[in-house]
Design goal:
Blueprint (H helix, E strand, L loop, with lengths): L3 E6 L9 E5 L2 E8 L2 E6 L14 E7 L5 E11 L6 E3 L15 E2 L1 E4 L2 E5 L1
Antiparallel strand pairs: 1-10, 2-3, 3-4, 4-8, 5-6, 6-7, 9-10
This protein binds FE2/S2 (inorganic) cluster (FES).
Length: 117
């Protein structure tokens, strides 16, 4: 069963970039999106890069009108090594949702942010 670990103060997490914390001897990236906080293991499932240190971004997506639109702005993290993009909320790799970055539940009490590992 997951245990609750103090990660950082909620005010330390910005909406632009992950805050990297050490929780239970794991490196974890904490993100702030418009629906709250999310946490991913800071290890890319591709080749093990520090995933959460890559840019927080959106992606270009094809539409049914033979055009591309920029979508999910700020809701993805792109690995700095080979550019794989992951959904911050679920950890899913955009190209193949069977591949996932490990994600953890986050709770906030007062201004203390906890990751459940
Ligand atoms: S190590 Fe992350 S995309 Fe390759």
């Amino acid at each position: 069963m997951a245990e609750k670990h103090f990660a950082c103060k909620a005010e330390q997490v910005s909406a632009e970039k992950a805050t990297i914390v050490s929780v239970n001897n794991l490196s974890v990236g904490v993100f702030k999106l418009d629906d709250g906080f999310h946490a991913l293991l800071n290890v890319c499932p591709h080749k093990g890069a520090a995933l959460c240190e890559g840019p927080q971004c959106g992606t270009t997506r094809e539409t049914d009108k033979e055009e591309f639109v920029y979508d999910k702005a700020g809701e993805l993290v792109r690995c700095a090594w080979h550019g794989w993009e992951f959904d911050i909320r679920t950890g899913e790799f955009l190209v193949d949702p069977k591949i996932r970055a490990r994600s953890f539940p986050v709770t906030v009490e007062d201004d203390d942010l906890f990751v459940h590992i």
